[in-house]
Amino acid sequence: MRIGELAAAVGVTTRAVRHYHQSGLLPEPERLGNGYRDYTLRHAVVLARIRRLTELGLGLAEVRDVLADEAGKDLVEVLTELDEDLARQEAAIRERRARLRTLLEDGGGPSAEGPVSPELAALFRDTAHLADSPMAVKDREMLALLETAAPPEERERLTGLLGGVVSAPGGAERARALYGMLDALADAEPDDPRVEEAARALAATVPDGLVPEGTGLGEADGFLRALYADFPPAQAEVFRRMLRIVTEERS
Predict the structure, then answer these.
(1) Hey, what's the torsion of the CAs at 4, 6, 11, 15, to 10 degrees?
(2) For 143-200, how does the pLDDT look when each residue is reduced to its tens digit (9 = 90+)?
């Protein structure tokens, strides 16, 4: 992705991206032969987390401490201190305190992808039993990224649709089976016959409205190109075929 595509995907400005580079929060990507930065999905995941943390009121030094601690302990300490400070300004920051309290009172502390909305945090708790799947871990990162970039009403719609998939009868079992199919393709080739089976199984679980009409599937789309590049070839092919199946069958 170019810097403009990265900024648009996460919902920040290109100036903010450059500032986070200068502050040492966002690693510099490799440059193409023409000198342009080439951002990957990993950069988008980190940038989305930086945005969520700064929206909670954390300073850049505090964000740096949180990003350096993958266990999340520093995040709890920082959020606790921030909550005590915000309590003195309750009228102006009531909504922010509610979000912080949800994070601080969560049973296991903020997740590795956090902070996220209470709705997405609840979905993560409902699927915690799938955390042993590498694909499930990536899926959680992607959901946190998409939620960060979406407007509030879209966030609610997204988590509602996904929550319905998991809570439906047999939903948890189907999710585990799908993650197992995808994990098994980590070292496979794109023409592996299991790719088509996984794509169709995945497409069958996609609720109506999750993939908006008119979604572009071309490799020219910087975000999709970065998404596919973040997965092994066979897994990326599953997602390509799944999107094609969903858009063709529901058009």
Answers:
(1) -50
(2) 888 888 877 777 788 888 888 888 888 888 999 999 999 999 999 999 999 999 999 9
- DSSP output for 108-162: T-S-TT-S--HHHHHHHHHTGGGTT-HHHHHHHHHHHHHHHHS-HHHHHHHHHHH
Q: What is the pLDDT of residues 107-153, one digit of tens each?
A: 445 556 667 777 788 888 888 888 789 999 888 888 888 888 877 77
Residue 8, C-beta contacts closer than 8 angstroms, at least 6 positions apart:
none
The number of residues in the chain equals 251
Q: How many CB atoms lie under 10 A from the CB of residue 59?
A: 12
List of long-range contacts for 129-135, beta carbons under 8 Å, 24+ apart: 129/172, 129/176, 130/172, 130/175, 130/176, 130/179, 133/176, 133/179, 133/180, 133/183, 134/183, 134/186, 135/179, 135/182, 135/183, 135/235
Q: How far apart are CA 120 and CA 112, in angstroms?
A: 13
pTM here?
Answer: 0.69
Q: At what angle are helices 171-183 and 134-149 packed, to 10 degrees? A: 110
- DSSP secondary structure, 40-81, as one string: -HHHHHHHHHHHHHHHTT--HHHHHHHHH-TTSHHHHHHHHH
